[in-house]
Fold this protein.
Amino acid sequence: MGICKSGQLVALATYLAWAGAALAADPVSIGLSISLTGPTAPAGKQVLAGLEIWRDDVNAKGGLLGRPVELVYYDDQANPANAPGIYAKLIGVDKVDLLIGPYSTNVSAAALPAIIQNKRMTVGIFGLGANKEYKYAKYFSMNSQGASPRNYSRGFFQLALQQQPKPARVALVGADVEFSRNALDGARENAKEFGFEVVFERSYPLANTEYATIVRSMQAATPDVVYAATLPVDTVGLVRAASEVQFKPKLFGGAFLGRNI
């Protein structure tokens, strides 16, 4: 066995201290997919801005475990087909330390198989029922209403019942995407529980740009209230069309994702 002299011990100690400092300085990389273009881009950009504010605040206070935080993200264009490849890249190529996201139910549901295959954990951002088919134990949803799509609309129907005279007829409308389908499934169950008659139900492609015909058909069914499950683009389209045709139910709202208009 060799014997280290004092000078060698000092050199070894110096090297280990340097190596430890270098390792501690390596950033904690957090990877995600986010919608910066496409139909959910207005909300996706807000989510990213919030994450960047959090990153800067944490780094100003010394980072996580003494390590700076960096975000590694890619624009999924709000297209579920892009999600599996993005998460495979984050895990296999970028080798991020932590995963979050994706943002939105539609993209989250599509990304889960790649995350499950690699046995990674993630926190979905505002996913509604995205894990209902997989029931993956390492998926967590950042959603104040909880995992059940029924919770998303329960308050809406409870509020509707406070109107006088009490409403009894409801219209359900939304885009033909995962988020809207899940939200409308929950709304349909709540409508039945609270005694509402569903007098109109319609879904439309996300690429739809003409909403006046949908609103006129809904108006003809004479609902007392309308529960809509929409993304930013169709939120604007439905509200503007309702204004144009002077459609004024007692309550018009629900899972309206959108922007100021």
